[in-house]
Amino acid sequence: MNARPALDTDTTMVLGMASTAMPFASSPEAEAERWLRILRMHGEAGTTLQTLGVSEAPLEAPSQGAGGERGTAAQGNGGDVVAAVTESAVEVAHQRGARTVGTSDVLVAVMQVYSADFDRVLRVHGTDRDEVLARLGAKLPATPDG
């Protein structure tokens, strides 16, 4: 299957909300927090995150001074994180042979783009990458640099 997967309705909505929310974030970790808040309300990603007990508010205070560089995917898109996440999600969906890009693909893409920042956000919400991926039944696809 060589066709580029299309965005489903929930994914289109998630990416639209993210594009309006990201400019107001003060750091990559704040962006990651916004992604989590958006994703927990939509599609398969939302169902998964809510099943894991991820709530609107963090269970613990976020780390002070944390947050660094975004992954290379965002840097390769001129710093446009929504474009980076979209491209990564399309690739995730393509690798699993899907015809459409779902919110679970976006969730995996956010993990790729934000890496340690998203891991910290997941931790303060009471879960971690491994638990989320196990629940999704997914794994991160191989990347050229790691």
Describe the structure.
With 146 residues, the protein is mostly helical. The protein has a single domain, classed as Double Clp-N motif, CATH 1.10.1780. It is built from seven helices and two strands. The chain has a two-stranded parallel sheet with strand order 1-2. The longest helix has 22 residues, at 103-124. The radius of gyration is 14 Å and the shape is globular. It starts with 5 loop residues before the first strand and ends in a 10-residue tail after the last helix. The model is unreliable at 69-73 (pLDDT under 50).
Report the radius of gyration as a whole number of Å.
14 Å
- The CATH architecture comes to Orthogonal Bundle
Number of domains: 1
- Roughly what fraction of the amino acids lie in strands? under 5%
Give start-end ranges of low-pLDDT stretches: 69-73
Query: What's the CATH topology label?
Result: Double Clp-N motif
Text of the CATH class:
Mainly Alpha
Main sheet record = 2 strands, parallel
Number of helices: 7
Question: What would the average pLDDT be, to the nearest integer?
Answer: 85
For the secondary structure, the number of strands is 2
Output the structural class.
Answer: mainly alpha
Q: What fraction, in percent, of the residue positions are helical?
A: 55-70%
Major sheet: arrangement of strands: 1-2
- Distance from first to last alpha carbon: 25 Å
Shape: globular
Question: What pattern of helices and strands is seen along the backbone?
Answer: EHHHHHEHH
